[in-house]
Amino acid sequence: MNTKLVEIMEEDADTEAARKILEESGNIIKKGGLVAFPTETVYGLGGDALNPESSRKIYAAKGRPSDNPLIVHICQWEDIYKIASKIPKNAKKLADAFWPGPLTMILNKSDAVPKETTGGLDTVAIRMPGHKTALEFIRYSGGYIAAPSANTSGRPSPTLAKYVKEDLDGKIEMILDGGQVGIGLESTIVDLTEQEPMILRPGYITKEMLEKVLGSVSVDKTILDSNSKQAPKAPGMKYRHYAPKADLTIISGKQDPVVKRINELTKDSQSKGLKVGIIGTDATIANYYGDSVKSAGNRQEEETIARELYRILREFDDEDISVIYSESFDDSGIGQAIMNRLLKAAGHHVETV
Ligand code: TXA
Ligand code: MG
């Protein structure tokens, strides 16, 4: 299959030229094909959520286990009534506060949603993305887009269209290239099917932000405790996701001892002939001696780190780096999501100095 790559920037999403492209992409979806598209979090791999055949194709293109359910993306609140069987008050409250935006809600599904889309579950994940191109694409596609992140299963989620192409070229009909995404980490997932709302995956919308709207919110135990034997409630969270090819170790502690320890480890690895990558920050990268030293951004603005993390992990893959040492990041605000992804990428390998 020939994969068509078309540029369409968010600010141009309502031009005549964009309309033609969106119409074309919508027609691909209506015929059961697949289109990757930008959102505010990461690129998604879209298919018709109500067509079981489209969902099967998504799993095949990604090489994803079929027990790992897909998120259904909508472009207007009313559309939720077709795919959810019960809509608690909390769902409307969250939608009013955060949609369109980087928040996914788990609700009980209706019969309109095939089990192929929900990985066999009776619940469905629903999100309205905060990205104009994404919303228009969903509208032109008939309103219900099943979309996991547009990466090969097990690789970091794509934050640029070139990474979608790297993973999915020849496997899908079209890629809408909207440039680099804004947030860079996947949406927060909150489960509303139990008595108390529970976060299944941390993201840009934090526990504190959710609690302002809902009152008390809990967090899936498996996110906080890496040794937990319990299965995470979001099936996808059990995979060693977001993983680079290299072995990644996080070094945690105060800035100066961390820099010193990373340089020691680097020297040691290099003496064994290993190629070393380092993840530092703007304030520290000048002090490192790795083969490839990258700044994740600026600690005063943790959004910058969220945006660059997956790109850095992919670049290390391209550079054939075999060992990565990373600084640790503050575990508050968006830092919770950053550390959740980084710990997964590291297989929870942390050294404290
Ligand atoms: O930001 C995002 O959410 C991106 C963009 C494209 O929207 N999408 C995304 O999809 O990250 P994906 O498939 O890579 O991750 C979806 C996660 C998986 O961990 C999956 O197990 C979980 O959501 N999930 C989906 N449906 C679920 C359900 N009914 N119950 C529990 N977890 C569910
Ligand atoms: Mg994913």
- Percent strand equals 15-25%
Measured distance between first and last alpha carbons = 51 Å
The spatial strand order of the largest sheet comes to 1-8-2-3-7-4-6-5-9-10-11
Radius of gyration: 20 Å
Order of helices and strands: EHEEHEHHEEHEHEEEHEHEHEEHEHE
In the predicted model, the low-confidence regions spanning at least 5 consecutive residues are none
Heterogens: threonylcarbamoyladenylate, magnesium ion
Number of DSSP strands?
A: 16
- In this structure, how is the largest beta sheet organized? 11 strands, mixed
Summed up, the helix count is: 11
The helix content is 25-40%
Mean pLDDT: 95
Indicate the overall shape: globular
Could you state the oligomeric state of the chains shown? single chain
The secondary-structure class comes to alpha/beta
Topology:
Blueprint (H helix, E strand, L loop, with lengths): L3 E4 L8 H15 L4 E3 L6 E5 L3 H11 L8 E3 L6 H4 L5 H10 L4 E6 L14 E5 L4 H9 L4 E2 L14 H8 L5 E4 L10 E4 L6 E4 L5 H8 L3 E2 L1 H4 L22 E6 L2 H17 L4 E5 L11 E4 L6 H17 L4 E5 L7 H11 L4 E3 L1
Parallel strand pairs: 1-8, 2-8, 4-6, 5-9, 10-11, 12-15, 12-16, 13-14, 13-15
Antiparallel strand pairs: 2-3, 3-7, 4-7, 5-6, 9-10
Helix pairs in contact: 1-5, 10-11
